[in-house]
Amino acid sequence: MGFHTDASVLPRPRGEEEAGRLIEIQRDIERLRRELDYYKALVNTVLLPLIPQLEDFANRLLSATSNWPEGMP
Length: 73
Known about the structure:
The chain is mainly α. It has one helix and no strands.
């Protein structure tokens, strides 16, 4: 019976497994931070500026519909 010399089939020491998992977790955290920064920028540059426009539109719509005769939808 021969010995495997390929490192991929040898069991890794537990410390190496944990270190590898920590590196994966750190990469995930970095990716999530980038995504969070992207969505913060999206909210600040696109959505927040729309709020006053939406409020104005809603007020004009309510004003226009308040003058409708009764029975109108």
